[in-house]
Design a protein that fits this description.
Distance between the termini: 96 Å
Strand order of the largest sheet: 3-12-15-14-13-16
Oligomer: single chain
Helix content: 25-40%
Strand content: 35-45%
Radius of gyration: 50 Å
Amino acid sequence: MSSKVLSGHAPSRGPQRLASKTLLAAAVALTALGVACSGNSAQGGQSKDPPPVAVKVEVARAVAVSDTTDYVATLKSRDSAVIMPQVEGQITQIYVHSGDKVAPGAPLMQIDPAKQQATVKTQEDTRSAKRADVDYAKKQYERISGLYSAGVVSKQDLDQAKSALDAAQAQLHALDAQVQEQQVQLHYYRVTAPTNGVVGDIPVRVGDRVTNTTLLTTVDKPGSLEAYVYIPVERASRVKMNLPVQIMDNAGNVMAGSRIGFISPQVDNTTQTVLVKARIANNSDKLRTSQFIRARVVWGTHQGPVVPVLAVSRVGGQYFAFVAEDQKGKLVAHQMALRLGEMVGNDYVVLEGIKPGDKVIVSGTQFLVDGTPVVPQG
């Protein structure tokens, strides 16, 4: 009974299983077709080039570029006098203050002259006594000369009188020179200004004892200065008279211009440098004696490319710029490493990396990477 029932239901399940298998195969086929279509569409999207980036392009131009080197220089005044005493003694009076304007010969300080005055007085008294001896020797010679003419005395007596007169006159001349010397020495006890100018710092005080090496003050005459520039010996062969020298401020602006007027014939043994000097006009009094400044020596000029400042970027201490180059008929951005020089207006002087005529990208660089297609604006 049971076997009949089983044999009776078997034919009905066969068509159902076949239909299920057919539907499953169709679903798998559709899925594979969908994946294939999506893969083909993705591959088709990747094969298309990205749209070019619109950028502004400027052609690198060549301009006259100065070949320069900056050095630390010292300013010194051609009319700055360091006042030091020529005698020793104690300061009894100071007539001026720091910053005062003085004329030539104006008194600055007084050193105690009492001892020197006594020396001068002694020399003058000695000279007066010797002058009396000369007068006596002269009268004695005149008397002996008359007696010799009368034949009373011998020629030897006359010669002795003449010799005594000559000796007395010679001693008087020597004393005159000594008195003059001591009077000149007495003049040095009053310190005066050698030229017109402004009194500098006064480090001494009344009562100080000074010597020949004591700095009393300085007198600076407003006007021109000299820049002392020390050139390394490696560049000494390029140093020539009348080479331009520019005095720069901290912002890189030119404060004054000059030319080399002196070249030392010797090399400094300590620093292995050659001293050159350039006279600097200081009409506006912006520069000071003994000031350290930046001096730019202009060795010459040459033609070199410049690029706008906006086109240059800095990454990790290295400067870069993008250049539009033709590649298979299309413009492509290429990143170039640069070595830059000085600025000329709003442009950098390029020492290496870009040639005159290169198409430099000056805008839209933040959207670029090496190889990005670009299209010039306008």
